[in-house]
């Protein structure tokens, strides 16, 4: 069965999903996903035991209303997030991480972001814009944002320094009427 034929859902995190995420994303010292998800911050921390992970700030965040678990046939494989840059002015950004590279390149990111963006616009009828920020070193995320109809709204040049090289901060956004139409 291809990944496109598997059941893809977004769910609140539970203990089972957290165990999947810990195994795929936070057990190893240098997992592949950390090379693409804002590696210039250098803030990744491995957790040798599930108990340590379960009592970490990462788990607190995953269990918050800001996140949902990406589930593929009932297995937690990643997370989507929404964070207010400024709730008063209705400025919200989203994020996505699929922890295990086995699930990359199969269209899951696009499928799940379509669900997530629709959920957010439904949840916040007053919201007119959803943003997404990445860096110029993550060409897959840039391509996905463009494929979903996001417009490049800003490119802040040479503000991300990683492995002795400068990269740009890339900001994308989509308006409600662009998403619906």
Account of the protein in words:
- The chain is of the alpha+beta class and 181 residues long.
- It has one domain (6-180): Gcn5-related N-acetyltransferase (GNAT) (Aminopeptidase).
- Helices cover 29% and strands 33% of the residues.
- It is built from six helices and seven strands; from the N terminus they run E-H-H-H-E-E-E-H-E-H-E-E-H.
- It has a seven-stranded mixed beta sheet with strand order 1-2-3-4-5-7-6, sandwiched between helices.
- The two termini are 32 Å apart.
- This is GNAT family N-acetyltransferase.
Helix content: 25-40%
Strand content: 25-35%
Shape: globular
Tally of separate domains: 1
| Number of helical stretches of at least 4 residues | 6
The largest pleated sheet is described as: 7 strands, mixed
Global structural class: alpha+beta
Pfam families: Acetyltransf_3
Protein name: GNAT family N-acetyltransferase
Organism: Lactobacillus johnsonii
Domain N-acetyltransferase: 20-168
């Amino acid at each position: 069965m291809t990944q496109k034929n598997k059941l893809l859902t977004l769910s609140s995190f539970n203990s089972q999903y957290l165990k999947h995420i810990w195994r795929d994303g936070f057990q190893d010292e240098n997992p592949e996903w950390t090379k693409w998800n804002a590696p210039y911050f250098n803030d990744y921390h491995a957790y040798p035991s599930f108990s340590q992970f379960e009592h970490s700030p990462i788990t607190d965040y995953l269990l918050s209303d800001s996140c949902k678990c990406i589930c593929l046939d009932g297995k937690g494989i990643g997370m989507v997030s929404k964070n207010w840059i400024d709730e008063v002015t209705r400025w919200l950004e989203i994020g996505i991480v699929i922890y295990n590279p086995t699930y990359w390149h199969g269209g899951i990111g696009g499928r799940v972001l379509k669900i997530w963006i629709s959920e957010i616009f439904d949840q916040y009828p007053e919201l007119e814009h959803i943003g997404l920020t990445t860096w110029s070193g993550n060409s897959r995320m840039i391509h996905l944002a463009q494929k979903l109809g996001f417009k490049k709204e800003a490119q802040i040049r040479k503000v991300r320094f990683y492995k002795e090289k400068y990269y740009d901060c890339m900001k994308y956004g989509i308006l409600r009427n662009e998403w619906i139409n």
